[in-house]
Write a structure and sequence with these properties.
This protein is α+β, with helices and mostly antiparallel strands. The chain has one domain. It contains three helices and eight strands; from the N terminus they run E-E-E-H-H-E-E-E-E-H-E. The strands form two sheets. It has a five-stranded mixed sheet with strand order 1-2-4-7-8. The chain has a three-stranded antiparallel sheet with strand order 3-6-5. The longest helix has 9 residues. Bound molecules: zinc ion. Zinc ion (ZN) binds next to loops.
């Protein structure tokens, strides 16, 4: 796996923290502004659960495991995330892009937020699983730093802000690559 050796300091809703990885992911948003996979009124994901059969399951303190598919995904390059978005893939949960062909055709499941996330120093980090693009990282737990919505989902911003402690920015258009203009 490739990862910067330097720890970076990030600003979380709970104050400054040291992170061993910082990156991006997608999460689906419900029509009531709930971010799937993220408990309301919390910037932290729950600890990742191992999805392997019991006989080969990870030690709960060591999720994600090597040679496993478990862990919360993030990608360190925003461009990689955006390229995935523009490819309109419907066959994968990678980087949190939980979107099935059926939900896309129904028109739901397509409200998504890009989350800027960090894995803190005490969080286990692994490289990509076999099913992932190579620049994927898997983390045991993520803290959310910031959320980004496309203009088409602007109506969800006040609902998300009322239920989560991190800032949410609405982009001028419907292209997530515009996040670059805010950094
Ligand atoms: Zn596992």
């Amino acid at each position: 796996m490739t990862m910067s050796a330097a720890f970076s300091q990030v600003t979380t809703p709970y104050g400054p923290r040291y992170a061993r990885a910082v990156g991006w992911r997608f999460n689906t948003v419900t029509t009531t502004g709930v971010i799937c996979g993220l408990p309301t009124f919390d910037a932290y994901t729950p600890p990742a659960q191992c999805i392997a059969p019991a006989i080969v399951r990870c030690d709960p303190a060591a999720v994600p495991g090597t040679d496993h598919d478990c862990g919360h995904r993030l990608v360190t390059e925003l461009d990689g995330l955006c390229a995935y978005e523009s490819a309109r893939r419907t066959d994968s949960y990678l980087w949190g892009a939980a979107r099935t062909k059926a939900s896309t055709e129904r028109g739901d499941g397509d409200h998504r937020v890009v989350l800027h996330v960090a894995a803190e120093l005490d969080t286990p980090i692994r490289g990509a699983a076999l099913v992932d693009p190579p620049n994927t990282l898997r983390a045991g737990r993520l803290v959310t730093l910031h959320g980004w919505l496309r203009h088409r989902d602007a109506h969800l911003a006040p609902l998300i802000r009322a239920q989560y402690p991190f800032p949410v920015t609405v982009l001028d258009g419907d292209d997530f690559t515009a996040i670059h203009n805010h950094n």
